[in-house]
Structures are given as structure tokens and as C-alpha cells.
Amino acid sequence: MGGVRLVVVAGTTATAAIDGISAAGADTDLRTHTPSADLEIVETGRPAPDSPVPVSPTGCPTPAAVTRAVRELLGPESLPVEAVDAGLTAPTAAAVRDVGATPGGDVRDPEPVPEAATVFERARALAPELAAPNEGGDRARDAEEEPAELLVAETIPGGTTTALGVLTALGERAAVSSSLPANPIERKRRVVAEALAASDLEAGGAAGDPIAAVRLAGDPVLAAASGLIAGAADAGVDVTLAGGTQLAAAGALARHAGVDRPLPLATTTLVADDPTADLPALAADLDLRLAAADPGFGEADHPAMAAYARGEAKEGVGMGGALALAERAGVADAAVRERIAAVTDRLLAERAEDGGSADGSPRSTGGVTR
Amino acid sequence: MGGVRLVVVAGTTATAAIDGISAAGADTDLRTHTPSADLEIVETGRPAPDSPVPVSPTGCPTPAAVTRAVRELLGPESLPVEAVDAGLTAPTAAAVRDVGATPGGDVRDPEPVPEAATVFERARALAPELAAPNEGGDRARDAEEEPAELLVAETIPGGTTTALGVLTALGERAAVSSSLPANPIERKRRVVAEALAASDLEAGGAAGDPIAAVRLAGDPVLAAASGLIAGAADAGVDVTLAGGTQLAAAGALARHAGVDRPLPLATTTLVADDPTADLPALAADLDLRLAAADPGFGEADHPAMAAYARGEAKEGVGMGGALALAERAGVADAAVRERIAAVTDRLLAERAEDGGSADGSPRSTGGVTR
After folding, report:
1. Which residue of A has its CA nearest to B41?
2. Domain B4-136+143-355, what architecture?
3. CATH second-level architecture of A4-355?
4. Is the CA virtual torsion A326, A332, A334, A335 positive or negative?
5. Would you say A113 and A218 are in contact if contact means Cβ atoms under 8 Å apart?
6. Nearest CB to A72 within list B45, B98, B140
7. Shortest distance, CA B69 to any CA of chain A (angstroms)
8. ipTM here
9. Which tens digits make up the pLDDT trace of A238-280?
């Protein structure tokens, strides 16, 4: 085993701006900056000076804080991070891999992801590179070492709606979770119905054609994530889908692309137990081995964990996969919660400093959702 | 000491297409792809499948092969690499940092680098991030650890001509080296004279105004490299200019931006001894501590080293700085030469495989120069 690497696929979709879809949607700054800031937080523990701090007014931090907390507990070198630019809108200080993506259009456009095929193929070619032994390393000397296992994760506001679009287009179970405590699933279904009509597509009309499903009813993160999964499968590299319904949609795309390799889906109990999503049934349909991590957020006396326990955020940026790794490494739940609290407090302190900046404008106001 | 990190600033300038300036200039494929492929070679030891192999017909490989060879000898984890996108034209499989650069225009345009100020400032802000202890790491836990030393390097075909443009605009000694055995310095001087005239600038007209010098007569790599040097100086981070006359020009820009910190310039004897460049005098003018590494290329019985000994390539992609690190680590010159031969042979084998591809077209034909 060559270790584990977290691959965060980060992008944006204009779908997030649709009223009522995403809590971040109403706030252009957060909608466009959150994925860029998430990469920075996972990499260094804080957003770059130019990025807003993705923490909601209720104190619910981006799930990137949870993933970051796990990296700090395991030692960052034990969980290297790779970032893929799948349509970022705002600059990021993180180092990113290019797969030819641009920000996704509104899912109700006829073709929200025109470059879906390119992004899928470039991500497919990239997967074995990301898993190559000894990252940045000496392939000549270590030719016999095993490739790393890839944990594929996402960050894209509005992404559960495009996931619903893709699942519907493929003819799969049309249910997704939400980062809002009350899932606006009916609203999402109406948006997806409009999206399919605009693309002259019926439910199930893109079965067996994952590129068409993404191109007509998805987002660039789904194109890149499913390409990575297919590329890992091609190369015999172990890959875990580290996420909830969005990664399940990426898994569905990979299945429709002919991938029949075992695909674990590592998420949180917050998503797995969401009755509006029925992730266990979707995972069973797609032959994804579902595992759900629960660090006992309900037991923590901290606003961040309380917000998670209320059903805010739920998943994203590899949170469930990271929590599973902490469990596998034998880290106690209490230590995980303590570190999440510490990372969140650091982010809140940054926001406070930032809010006191020269122009007096706070950099973060809305909630964060996907 | 927090170790050493190599920061490769990679970009392109339309200046490379000027007849007789750059051996790569005549070959659009190499001119646009070389910096992208160089990042891949330094990171993984070979170009990505879509990149050409930057090896000249005489068997002279890109200096990236030398830097890569040193990384393999020291262990890649001992010399981590960071890449900055300072105006790449072709895609790269390497992970890159964004500083807002676009490919540079022809130096004879009135404003070849319109975004010079943004690129300089963003690179300046990035420098302390790149040097932060424990890369991607745990700042909370290791807060007391020292930042790393940065080795700033470049890859940009045509870059010695824009370096001459900037030195002239600043009123510094107008002499640069060349990757061609016979330096077309008079041709470069004529191009720079045209460039200054087009920008309504006299020699020395941008003294004390480094942003204007780059904006009107430089390239985006010089903007980013000088920004990194200034940012490192701001943060008290040790920085070495790993290159020849182009890094000297970046050092000149930093001096004109008010940086008075000691700045070592680590290059090869191939550049330092080039009489057409007079790098020792330029370094003395700018108070750069010049050190030149010589791994005895003349003694090697390999076409790659023979080409270097004849004066091809000479420097680039941090070659001189990397050779100095190998020396500092006590690696024998013979071992360095042997590993350079091995990396080059791998690249040539890739090119041979590539030349036999479906469409029969070889991917690399011209020479590589800067």
C-alpha cells in the first residue's frame, strides 16, 4: 500500500444562484469563493488573506474545517492533498491541477457543461499520476512500490442540485441530500425538470451516456470526479468516494461509463441518515459500499458541532472520508471533536480580524451549503 | 532551518517567436509546451502523455532534467517543488499556483505584461505561504518551526531577451546570456531597442519603478519571480535566485523595489563564464552573491553533457541551484553526471515511443532555449 491521498475536486456552478437552492447562493462572495477557500483551509488550516472565511452566522464552519482537523491529527504528511480545478471562479492560493474546466453554467441552460468530455478524459488521465508512488518522487528508484489509494472529494456550492440532475438524466434514484437542515428537495426537482426540458432530455434519457448526463444536466466537478474514478479503475488504483450524494452521483456516472470495480462510498451519518436523500438505497442501486462515520457531534459543547448535529452542512470536502481515516487510525472521537473545535475557533478568529479590516466590511455573512 | 523548497516560475512570452532569438521559437509546439513539460519533468521525471519531450536534436535535454536528476539523488522529499503559473500557454499535469498571470506579449508591444502589478503583488503575498513550515502542514502544532529557504527558478523560452529589456529599462548593465552556443546578443539588443521605443521608454527610464520595467519591457515570469523575492524579503525568509541572467534581472527588479536583503545567485559555470553575458559584473552591480556550480560536464561521455559542455542550454529550471544543493549534500560529481544521463535517456526513450505514435509525427523537433 502506498498510503492514501485526498483529491479535492473544486468548482462552481451558476446553479447555486437559483433562489432557495443553496444558502451560499444569495451571497455572491461566498458562492464564488467557498471552493477556493476550502482548498486553502484543507491545505494550510486557514483561508488566504484574500479569501472569505466560510463560516455561517450560526457558527457552522465549512466541512473543510473537519477534513483539516483530521489532517492535523494524523499529521498532514500522512494525508497529502491534491486539488483539481474543476471550474473555480475565484483565485485560490492552493496549488491546483488543470483539467480544462470552466465554471459550470446554470443547470437550466441547454448545455451547462459544454467541455464535459474534455474534463472527464483529462481527469481520467490524471488519476494514475495522482496515485503514483512517492508523489513528486523517484519513479525509477521506487518502481516496485504500490500506488496510493485515492480519496475523491468535492466542493461546489449548489452541487446537490446538479447531482440530482445527473441522477435523473441517468435514470437512477432521484434523491439527494442538502446542506440545509430542511432539504428543499421539491424545489430541486422542479429545477431539474426545467433543466432536462431545456436540454431536450427525458429522465433516463442519458442512461449509458455519462458525458451527455454531465454536459446537459450536471456540473464540472461531477465531470472531473467521475473521470478520476474511471481513470483509477483503468489503472487498478483503489479509489474511495469521499462524500455524500454528490459523490454517489459521480459513482453513478462511473458505473454508466462501464466501471465495475468495487467503489466504497465514505460519508457521514448526517447524510447517510437523511431520510430525504435515502443514500443507502442509492448506494445499493449503484453497488457502492456505503460506510458512514459519526464522531458524536451531538455530544460536543461547541457551536460548530451543534450546527452539524442540527443538520447543517452534513458533508463535503471529504469530511466523511477523513473521519473514517481518523477512525481507522484509532483516533478517539473526543480528540476529533476537540480538534474540529480548535480549527473552527481559528477560522472564527480570522473572520473577526477580517471584519475589522480597513473598509469595515465583514468578508463572510451567509451560510455555507452545497 | 525548515529545509529548502524549489519554486519554479513558469510562463511564456510571444517574444520567443521573434526570428533568431530562441531556438525553440521557430517551433510553436516547443515554444508553448516547454515550460508546462518542464514542470512535469521536475515533479515526476517525465512529461505527461500530452506534452512534448524537450530534448534538442543534438541530444541536449531541457535543464529540467538536471534539476530532476538532483531531486532523485537527494530524495524528492528533501527538495519539494512548488510551481507558479506565470503565464503558461499549454496545459500542464503539474499542480500550479495562480498569481493572475496570462502569457506575455511580444516585448516590442507597447505593454507586453499589462497585469505586471497584480502578478508582482500576488507573488509577493504567496512567498511566505510557500515557505511556511511543514508544507500543507500543521501550523498550530509546529508554530515554532523555522520557515523553509526558497530557491526561485524560471522556465520561459525567450526569457533572456525580456531580461535584457528589463535590465535596460532599469538602467542596469545590459548583458544577458543565451541558451544558444553563439549568443545572438546584438539581435536581442536591437529587439530591446525597438521594445523601449514602442513603450516610449528610454534606457534607465524605469529606474526605481520595477513594475513599469516589467509591464513595458519584460515578461510575466520576471513579474512573479521578483514578487516572490520581495515577499520573501518582507517575511524574513531566505531566498536564493536559482538561475542565470534571468534571475539576475529578477534580482535587479527586487533591488529597484527596495529589497536590500542579501540575495545569493546560484547558477552554473556555463553561464557565469559566458563572456557575452558578464554575469559576475552584473551580480556585483546588484550586490548578488554569485556562486557557480560545475559538475564537470566536459568529462562525461554522454551526448547530453557534451551538449552542455558545448554551451547549449547553460541554465534554467533551477539547474545551477540544484547542482549547488547536490554539492552541499556531498554528492559526487560523477554520481550527478550519471543520474543526469539516466534521466536524459528516459526522456529520449519517451520521445522515441512518442515518435512512433499513431499519426507518426514526432512530438519534439527543435532545440530548447530560453
Report:
1. A136
2. 3-Layer(aba) Sandwich (3.40)
3. 3-Layer(aba) Sandwich (3.40)
4. negative
5. yes
6. B140
7. 9
8. 0.71
9. 999 999 999 999 999 999 999 999 999 999 999 999 988 999 9
